[in-house]
Amino acid sequence: MVATKLRRKANIKSIARFSFKTAANLSYKIHGESHSDEPAILLLHGLLGSKRHWDSIGKTILNVTKRAVVSVDLRNHGDSPHTSSHKYEDLAEDILKLLDKLSITRASFVGHSMGGRAAMTVSLMAPETVAGILVVDISPISNSKQLTEYYPRVLEAMRGVDFKKQKKISTAKQKAKKQLENVIKDDILMRAVLSNVKMRADHTIGWACNVDVLIKHFSYITSFPKSMLKKTYYGPCLFMGGQLSEYLPPDDLVGIREMFPRAVITYVPQVGHNIHVEDPKSFLELTISFLRTNK
What we know:
It contains twelve helices and nine strands. It has helices spanning 9-16, 55-65, 88-101, 114-125, 145-159, 169-180, 187-194, 211-216, 218-221, 253-259, 275-278, 280-291, and strands at 28-30, 40-44, 69-72, 107-112, 130-136, 197-199, 205-207, 237-242, 263-268.
């Protein structure tokens, strides 16, 4: 079990009040062993990402903090189940179910984009369980045009890729890339999308992410749950934005602090939406400094 010493009666009750009847059994990776009494750290990817994207960063955070570090595939992504729903409340219950499974009753969260909104939702639904949240380049208040207008085009282009005659992952990725190049101009996003090409259980090649449901429920991905807007999380919150990104406008801080009174916003110079990819050194320095304040 991960960090079993973290069990506290109050926190056990906070998780136990959720039924988990519709929660998915998430795929996860534990980054090495930890014997620390400090809160565990969960890493949550963004839209079209997966737990694998945190491998290098997860190892570094473990080595420096000595805390349990767990990267997670959110529902409809990576190796986690494909479900018929993709609401943030669902994602949060999945995560709480995983904490219960791993005997983690107090954790810090680092979430990028969609994963950041999932982390915020967890903190508002079960605040006693959350030691702190680091939200990477996303806001609960507003949306970037890249998210609302560009990503639907990306998902539709992905749905149009035909893998039927493909036998090898490498050639399937090459074909997918050729079909997607007219829509996806960003190298980081293209790599993330192509990392979703996988051999499925029925020995056919296809997308690891549930493209159809992500398209169907895209309105939920682009809107922070209204049911959360009147809730408050009083723990430590760091919102980390990319200076060249439009996902986290400074003007949103007033609205953010209505839900997260201790929220602080910081910006990493000369990077866009994928801070942890574009400047991992600055990302890790800020992340580790923040996590050390989470008790």
